[in-house]
Amino acid sequence: MANKLNCYNKVMGLYRFSPIASEAELYKVIEYLHKTCHELCFDVFGKYLPVAGNVGIFSHYDNEFADLSKLRSALTAGVPNYNNKYFKLLEPITISAQGDIPEATYEFLYIRNPDPYRSQVGDVDFMLNPSEHEVFKRGLTTNEFHNKARIFSRPEENMIELFDTDKDVLSYVVTSPMSEKAK
User: How is domain 18-181 classified at the architecture level of CATH?
Assistant: First the structure.
């Protein structure tokens, strides 16, 4: 077990970016999530899906969560929207295209509390039209990954969760943009 942990630390680093304490570090993480989540999306779907407009940053330490919450307060409208955890950015963050990975704009920011069961850097949501989403879900089960995808455990969310043990990110596939959910 120690060798596997050491390998993980050498490849990705334990909590790759944590603790995140500055706006510059936050933007670096968002760029990383944009790239790596798109790669995961492509691995599963064979194409890049459009983003839903939100990005989630996973904190791993209590002090990091406090620092990220202060950053979020400075960067967002300050009033939580969807699920009382997504905050609308005052200035959307646009990440330019990188090779074949498309440009995307993020309008909502989520900072997650430390969770001992979530070591990932964060997540990005992607959109798939409702009929394709439903067809894809038919080949999946809840809480059991099949080809890097599963039905997310909260059925009311109607999300597909993407995960790869070789990537330190998560992605979710939804049917509508965050701006619609946040209304």
Answer: Roll (3.10)
